[in-house]
Specification:
The chain is α/β, with parallel strands linked by helices and 605 residues long. The chain folds into 3 domains: 244 residues, SGNH hydrolase (Rossmann fold), CATH 3.40.50; 144 residues, Rossmann fold (3-Layer(aba) Sandwich); 172 residues, Aminopeptidase. Helices cover 40% and strands 19% of the residues. The protein has 24 helices and 18 strands. The strands form 3 sheets. It has an 8-stranded mixed sheet with strand order 16-17-15-14-13-12-11-18, sandwiched between helices. A 5-stranded parallel sheet has the order 2-1-3-4-5, with helices on both faces. The longest helix is centred in the first third of the chain and has 21 residues. The protein is globular, with a radius of gyration of 27 Å.
Length: 605
Amino acid sequence: MENNVQEIISKTEIQGLTDYLGLARKIDDKGLFDKAPQNRKIKIAILESFTLEGVREALLIKCLKEGIYPLIYTGSYNQYNQEILDSASNLYDFKPNIVILDLDTRTVAGENYFQLDSDGQSMHGKAWIKSTLSTILGLVQKIQENSKASILLHNFEVPTYSPLGIIDNKQSYSFRQLVQELNSELRDVLRNDPRTFLFDFERFASKIGKDNLIDYKMFYLGDFRINPKVIPDLCGEYVPYIRALLSMTKKCLVLDLDGVLWGGVIGEDGLSGIKLGPTPEGQPFLDLQKYILSLYNRGVILAINSANNVDDAMEVFRKHPYMMLKEDHFAAMQINWQDKVSNLKAIAEQVEIGIDSLVFVDDNHVNREVVKQALPEVLTIDLPSDPSLYPKTIMDMHVFDSLQLTSEDKVRGKMYAEQRKRQEFQRAAGDINEYLKVLQTVVTIEKASKFNIPRISQLTQKTNQFNVTTRRYMEDDITKMAGSDNFLVVSVKVEDKFGDSGLTGLAIIEKDPQRWRIDSFLLSCRVLGRNVEDTLLAYIIEQAAQEGARVLVGEFIPTKKNAPAKDFFAEHGFSKVSELNGSEIWEYDLQQVRPFPQFVKVVVR
């Protein structure tokens, strides 16, 4: 199924909206959706206050190119208000996973669009902002009340015109300033709403050029407030949100060295001969490194895949005055004369993430094509021939975007670099018990609270390998369970002599007087092998026994990625009681005491 669709798309030359329309007609999107893997399916509802023909088709093709299988509902022309307010509308019958709400500046300004404002008074400044904000937030609230969907809400294009001309900035509340402040208020109010995300339409309009945003002939003929030519670009901007909602965000940026992080070849040009620094030839590489460092600081894992002599490469990291990226920024360094494919597999294994979480950057066309053929699940970036375009190419990827940024995200790159040191230490230690003893692991188990719920939700969305059920939960789902006497929701934080691994695991337990059921039990793979999973299970067993339960029920639901968790229950004293379509039910007799493991200090909060 997927190969056929990809073949159709790859063989079609797409130059404009007409091509998207034609290609969409060849594809049975409903049939694709019904047969697609559950973790790649998404229902998208698009509501707009004006004519937006072609958005369904363009978004369908954009998603399918990413391996996402959408079913898309588009509301009737300018009926967004009725559909949102009517709990029995077609919108809610559709049961969307995400609602894209596209209201424009003309809609919220109404008949006063050209009258705002010659004297700063006709819309009463702040009163207009307050009224408009209240209306919009009311619509958001209704969607949240009537569905479980996430919401992608457009902000508003700031007009390029002003009735006041060049003295616009001299007024207290000119029209342009009113729209700017409305956008600012929306951002502030929605910042902590876990289900609503603000799509920066003002930025999009500026990016493509506001003079290109509207075709006035089409506008007056059919109320097209977005030029059909730019609809594919707009849909492309939606895709990162959809990808993130499906937990398809990439995790690791794998970089070549020569020709990517610096110009030239270190083995031939030497330390003083490579291009890196504040010169016309060296500045693009310096800027690229600065941007990559910003990715690292927001949690992107970095790795190296380079055909090079280790000593030559290390000399640049340690001695070049403009080398922004250092050894400690990298979770894996495959610097050797092996082929790039083997090195990518080794990096995925070392970092303990799926091969499909990797993004590969190499300036050599042959290397890129070999990787594309051998490892199509790796996202291979086609760098332009001109290095001055490298920074823009990487900045335009948006494949590392996520819907949350937690404190753990910000230090993830550092945590994975520390993991490399643990692995080196473990190989040197030889004896596993000696390794665990010297590691000085501290496991902190803490009940869900407003401080850790965002991270708990994120872990359910992102963790695929050591995850017994791979159930996904939004923040409000976790909040409801944490506030119920029928659930126990706990997080796990891990520290040792090499550093703080952060909040890297959780358990969600549904409590019944006699039987406790493990709804979710997951850990980041980077903390496996340190008795963390044994510690968390021992805590759950202890709590269940203390509250008088007799049986602890575990469930394993197989996926393509969670094989590392398959034998967890069997290896920890559970007995299998049933199996259906690969899903297994296990039970643990709580009369069996399970001690906490050695060499782990346990802190319960």
